[in-house]
Amino acid sequence: MSCLQAEQISKSYGDLLLFRRLTLNIAPGARMALIARNGAGKTSLLNILAGKESPDEGRIIRLPGLRIGYLEQEPAIDPRLTAFETVFAASGETVQAMEQYRKAVASGDKLLAGKAAEQMEQLQAWEYEAKVKQVLGRLNITRIHQPAGELSGGQRKRLALAALLVGEPDLFLLDEPTNHLDMDMTEWLEEYLRKTPAAFLLVTHDRYFLDRLCTETVELGSDGLTHYRGNYAHYLEKKAEKTAADRAETDRAKNLLRSELQWMRRMPKARGTKSKYRTEAFEELREKARSPQPEQQVKLAAAGTRLGGKILLMDKVEKRFGEKVILRDFSLTVSPKEKIGLIGGNGTGKTTFVNLIMGDVLPDSGTIEHGETVVYGCYRQSGMTWKPGQRVIDPVREIAETVFTGDGRQISAARFLSDFLFPPERQRVMIDRLSGGEKRRLYLATILMRRPNFLILDEPTNDLDVLTLNLLEEYLQSFGGCLIVVSHDRYFMDKTVDRLLIFRGDGKIDSFTGNCTQYRLACRKAQAQEQEAAAKTALKKPLAGKSPSAALPAGKPTLPANKPTYRQRKEMEETEAALSLLEAEKAAIEQMLGGGEATREEVIAASARMGVILSEIDAKTDRWLQLSEQGAP
Predict the structure, then answer these.
(1) Residue range 464-487, pLDDT digits in tens
(2) What is the pLDDT of residues 602-623, one digit of tens each?
(3) Pairwise CA distance, residues 19 & 475, whole Å
(4) What's the CA dihedral at 156, 160, 161, 162 to 10 degrees?
(5) Percent of the chain having pLDDT more than 70?
(6) Does residue 371 sit within a domain?
(7) Structural domain harbouring 192
């Protein structure tokens, strides 16, 4: 049974066909990811599913009473309402019950007040206000009585997400929900969605988010929707197999076509009816040989200029805005080929740090020195500016008519754009007709073609599709210059940086050698060590009026510091065994989901079980780390 079903839907805008005759079923409790290239129609499809747009043909069937929560990339929020009022009004039934109870109490009608109180009890309305404040706090909306019109774009996106979560719909449609979330918020949202009984279909660039949450993946391509059972890792495996099979099939068709073409040219006309079947087979081969090649990949191959020994030196830099301290006595030396990631909560100064390097903001004190050979390429969230009426090719040609590639070749600007998935016919399109992701890709092309040797990327993963990000990551891994990345995307950071600057706020910045996953593990170990130290301190602390030994349980000997007990060793062995069983069950479920033979009911049950398994794996892994830090072998 489906809670929402799209039957043979098509959508186009003018002469631009987005998709034709798509069919999609979303079951109750489904955990689905939608993947597609920028401009393929992901947002349009979500708009149709949510009821904001109508398909040109086909129909959408929804279960009666189905409550859909749709998070748009640019959510519409009443600027007159406060943040608290916006979220509080998300659950209309609960708010209405609370208003009825308030009026009944004010009028002194005890009977009506009693009925309203019963309804509030059924809706758990008594805890509703506390829940609203809790969700806002987790998403760092602290000024809850501030008008929504005064919030930044990122805050408005988080506010819309909070309203959705509090409303508890039956189906979430989420368009880039992790944009504008820091890592702690992303992990909190991940845990929330893992536990929710609601179904969801999400579009996101965060590959860890996809892999840990989704048990089904649908890819929107030129040939329609392709369905994959399994998480993101399973999708990548099956996608690679399909791409290889498609390429082999097309190559075979071309080889057969050559021989058939020779036969067709030699064929006497008198043999026409006798050889009709072969003529028809020839036409089928020709169509197969003309079928689209496996999806072209972005070739981020622009060359960089030579980089000298002196690159970037910051010495005792300080910066503040009024009472807010951004940098306090900060020094940094960037070495050749160093790749640095900036992480930290929103508002801690990461973008200001980038602006200081680029000279858009001056330090209050201290010095910033740049090497003479440094050529910066800075990708900013607000950096896209296009002249009215420009076509895709125009801003590229304004920079240069030719581009040098990494292997020393010189290619035309048009060929360079083709490598960025803008074919010749797309290069003549007006820029204002591009999707948000396509504009981002064009913006990235204009930066790389300037041949920078020091790249600064401020939230590059927002609005870029997953497939383009894979290629950008490969380019950055082989990039011979220096790199600074600001991003909350854990997967992207793990693949591209080898050092972190952690912005704590109030001017405090820590340095860590390693990527995000290594940093998070180090934090967990440090937390476990602190807990262990606190426990030892509490154990040794004498009780009032008693000797130190009286603080210990009667009949139990004191233990040497850091030596594990038998119980600790036993628990660690049991934890390892439990983890092995959980991983085996997880692999079995992934194999079952990927086989394509499970019934809809089995898929729903397996998806629910997968969420429980992932939670247990995380909990037991944390416990294993704690035990390992206590000295257990």
Answers:
(1) 878 778 878 888 888 888 999 999
(2) 666 676 677 778 778 877 877 7
(3) 31
(4) 100
(5) 79
(6) yes
(7) 4-95+125-235
Instruction: In whole angstroms, give the CA distance from residue 426 to residue 411.
Output: 18
Tell me: the pLDDT tens digits for 148-158? 888 878 888 89
Residue 307 CA neighbour count, 13 Å, CB half? 24
pLDDT for 435-468, tens place per residue?
888 888 899 888 888 888 899 999 888 878 787 7
Residue 295 lies inside a defined structural domain of this protein: no
3-class DSSP state of 574: helix
- The residues, ordered by sequence, that sit 6+ positions from 258 with a Cβ below 8 Å of its Cβ are none
Task: Supply the CATH number for residue 71's domain.
Answer: 3.40.50.300
42 and 87 part of one domain: yes
DSSP at 297: P
Give the three-class secondary structure for 53. Answer: coil
Q: Specify the higher pLDDT residue, 319 or 478.
A: 319
| String of DSSP letters for 140-168 | T---TTSBGGGS-HHHHHHHHHHHHHHH-
- The answer for residues whose C-beta is within 8 angstroms of residue 396's C-beta and 6 or more apart is 413, 416, 417, 442, 445, 446, 449
**Domain identity same for 138 and 223:** yes
What does the angle CA 211 – CA 11 – CA 176 come to, to the nearest 5 degrees?
A: 30
| Mean pLDDT, range 374-395, rounded to an integer | 87
- Per DSSP, what are the bridge partners of residue 377? 455
Amino acid at 283: E
Phi, psi of 476 (to 5 degrees): -70, -35
